[in-house]
Amino acid sequence: MSTTHFTSTIMIRVIVFALSHNIVFGNDQPTFVTAGCRDDITLHCTFLQNCQNYTSITWYKEGKCLYVVLLMAVYWCTEALPLAVTAMLPVCLFPTMGILPSKKVCVQYFLETNFLFLSGLVMASAIEEWGLHRRVALKVLKIVGVKPAWLILGMMITSSFLSMWLSNTATTAMMLPIANAILESLFGNVETLKENCKDKSDPEGDSQVKMHVLHFEKQMLATEDRPDWTDRSEQKNLEEARREAQYQMKVWKGFLICIPYSASIGGTATLTGTAPNLILVGQLKSYFPECDLINFGSWFVFAFPLMLLFLILGWIWIAFLYGGLNTRLCISKHDEREATEAKATAVIDEDYKKLGPIKFAEVSIAFFFILFAVLLFTRDPKFITGWSTFFNKGYVSDAVTGVIIISILFFFPSQRPSLHWWFDSRASNTPYVPLLSWRKAQECVPWNIILLLGGGFAMAKGCEESGLAVWIGKHLQPLTQVPPSVAVILITAFIACFTEIASNMATIIIFLPVIAELAIHVKVNPLYFMIPATTGCSYAFMLPVSTPPNSIAFASGHLMVKDMVKTGFVMNILGILCVSLAMNTWGLHMFNLHTYPDWARPLNASSASVATYTIATMNMTG
Q1: Of 72, 309, 425, 509, whose CB has the highest number of CB atoms within 10 Å?
Q2: Which keywords does this chain's UniProt record carry (predicted)?
């Protein structure tokens, strides 16, 4: 409550300050009429009177929309209100403040992009219901083996693949218990391991006062009772055991930290993998209705190689930092190493056997999952003709495909139906249980994310209709001097840093309209700036609070903040460089980023007409 009161007070004071100063716009430069400008106050007042119509037409609505945007941004960053409640503020504020009518605001909360996201969530809940994701994870770990480096790679591949279809949070929550079970079979209990990492040659229980008294007695006993080489040998063994325990603890941390990182990376490979990807699609349709370059297939072709590249580089960095690529293995002695590896392999095999033989429901879910992915990929992949050409142009979208597939899950049987009753009505039949019930889907689907998506689309619509986006774009002229390739790096770095302290959805909702206007004013293909921003907001690796997967891994109690900062800083740099490489190589040719597209010109033309109308009005009234 105190945070809400604090943030509300800040916003009210900002508005009061703005209303207490007369802001005049002439030649795109704001002039503040304050008490200190008494010499030419008459001139300013005359100019204000002449420009009254202009101010009421443009700046008045833009200012009110800016207030709503800033208010939502503060609430999202501070979480003074639940994120979903903040996302519904446009429904209250836009109509009452005269920015947008309610019929234009409310429809933004369930666009076709929301249906695509909903279909992905329902498919994920069906996979989790029948445990198919756990079977896939254990099978991958059986294949890669239990060597530290390869096991880290196996964890990252499995987490990233599952995160392409499941939520990043669900993937991390599922993979961490599997990782802990394998690690305990390799290294034993983690508390014992932590105890062995301590330096036992200097116990903390001995006080400094007693040390100088006992020092001579210990030397005499050591000299009389045993030779020096025995003492040195024991001390050497203790030191080796301590170093070995520290090395094993490092590997343990590497296992834990690679799971949330790979889940965040994997979510960028598909449109349904993470919400910011769908926000990009929704805002593209709002700002540039003629742009049809981004769909499930084209995004996958662009983002999947980027994900693989980043995943490999991230694996090399994590394995190097945490000892997985060390030439020695986790245990120095060959026999002991083989014994522990055999034990870890046995744990994986035992967990896999507990799943039992593959069930009819798992086979059915796997079939529909593959069909879901193939249909989305082949609908309109751009580089070949898709199956959507069999229907009226523009009628069938990715949302239609997703809803068709998930609808089947609610009536398809989860057990193999018996055909005996077709020939004998008295024959017993298996009970009918569908693959997914509506109650289960209702429990698993995070409806607050649907509202967050809608709030982002409503905010973007308000910025577009009020002219706020154009006004912000015109004040970004200094950035026109920056080369576009450098701007891509700066945008990705800024978004990646900002999303460390704010949710990725809030980040992309706030900045994507601004970035779109920036691209228009510097005459660069908007996708050249918007795609890196969208991808970069998923690269939050440095803090436990950055993403829910980071928080889950940190809550295990085995990681420290400095571990995440040290690892995540380099991961952020690697991600920024990978995005820049992708945008300037295969992305450049896939989306024709080297040319300014025709679908971006209508918005630019309307912006120019608004500016022309403004100047003409000022000239006539002046």
Answers
A1: 509
A2: Ion transport, Membrane, Signal, Sodium, Sodium transport, Transmembrane, Transmembrane helix, Transport
